[in-house]
Amino acid sequence: MNKLFKYGLLTAFIGLGFSCGDSFLEDPAQNSSTTLTSVQLSDAIAVDPTLSSALMSGVYALTFDTGSGGTGGHDDFGMKSYDIFGDMLSGDMALSQSVYGWYRASITEFGATQDFTFGDNRQVWRYYYRIINACNQVIDGLGGTDVTPDNQENKYTMGQAKALRAHSYFYLAQFYQKEYVGSEEILPIYTNSVDENGPKVTAEVIYDLMESDLTEAISLLNGFTRANKTEINQSVAQGIYAYVLGARGTDYQKAYNMATAALAGYPIMSSSEVTGGFNNVATPGWMWGVDLNDEIGLGLVSWWGQMDYYSYSYPAFGDHKAIDSGLYAAIPANDVRKNQFFNDPSRTEHLMPLFKFYDSDRTRYGSSRIVKADYVYMRVAEMYLLAAEYASRINEGNARTMLKAVVSKRVPDASYIDGLSGQALKDEIYLQTRIELWGEGRSYLAMKRNKATVTRGDNHLSFVGVPIPYNDERMAFEIPEGEIQFNPFISTQND
Q1: Domain boundaries along the sequence of the chain
Q2: In 163-198, which positions are buried (b, 16+ CB within 10 angstroms) versus exposed (e)?
Q3: What was the pLDDT predicted at 132?
Q4: So what's the architecture of 9-224+454-486 in CATH?
Q5: CA–CA separation, 425 and 393 (whole Å)
Q6: What stretches in the chain show pLDDT beneath 50?
Q7: What is the pLDDT of residue 27?
Q8: pTM for the complete prediction?
């Protein structure tokens, strides 16, 4: 297999290099003593620079590994786990039927976001801090966060590690702060793999680190040609930076510039592609994703296992995830994206994404229990929509141009956009973002950027018709009980 890595080799790297750093979530006595120190890693990388990229491959494996959030739950399968969490919290994804109970009490009924003892708080926290610690291991092995490696390959690896570290801090900041307030203390910050516990620092400090990491990553990744889309290249780092700047909301011109830089060279998915299953990382409009295969061996415990009716999955057996009925009604009848969803109110599968996300075999219950359909982490339509959103605040002409670039591929005539301005233009960009990126984990981020209030439609199992604003207490996770127990610098939610 000519891939970025052999999965078994990666798990060996993870076991050797990334087993420390979880003491803020678990009893320190449980930590492994068989770890490589940063000095040992640095010495090894000096002898063989290819080791740094191999270690970075191990970090990427965590993004799709089952149990990477520290649980045995069937909702714990890496980065895509939290796409579902966010889409359900935002209300754009409805749990329209529940047989097995995943997501119901903790996410759709807001149990976790109101009670720090719920395990989902711990899962989100541990996953992102585990990625951060793993990136810090790589960065330390390359000389530390303030060092620029001499070797070109190591520069590329350093750029990837810093971009992924920023990406993880970004999601932590989104999930654990109701809205950006620079002076609010929100999270501990770790920039090396030695520190295991620390006090909360302000959002301003966290965002400053993200911006510093991403600025350096973009520079370090200049000229990098990646082996495959699992790796972060310069355009992906620019895309992450565009999200960070938009969430911070202090420099929309720079945010616009970053989004437009990121989109260069990628075509927007066609009308046939957006109803083609979202199952192939080779799709030209995908900027970042994972090529899943037999050797990786994912099965029921995966994003596909929670989302795809045509896999061996929970949706096939009755745990249905559907588009919010109100959002579906807002999609014009002649919009190709309307066809992504099954429309038959007499069936329990009503409004499920049967024609957006599906295994290519299209066999209910799955023709195989091994997931081969791929994961998408970022696609170029996001960058057009982000650019439109940011431009709507500084240059409405550019906003309309960027919005039309996407919408013109979805409806026969997008000329109505030419007449939009002011709040109507902003509202249309937000709506198109929710429609275009439904089920891809972006609705929660867009809701917070747009300071929106969402009212759940009639196909939800709870809180139907209840308006929930973006900064409601129910929209942010709680610092987990384990962190408060084992981190001596944090004793309550308000420390």
Answers
A1: 9-224+454-486
A2: bbbbbbbbbbbbbbbbbbeeeebbbbbbbebeebee
A3: 98
A4: Alpha Horseshoe (1.25)
A5: 10
A6: 1-35
A7: 32
A8: 0.93
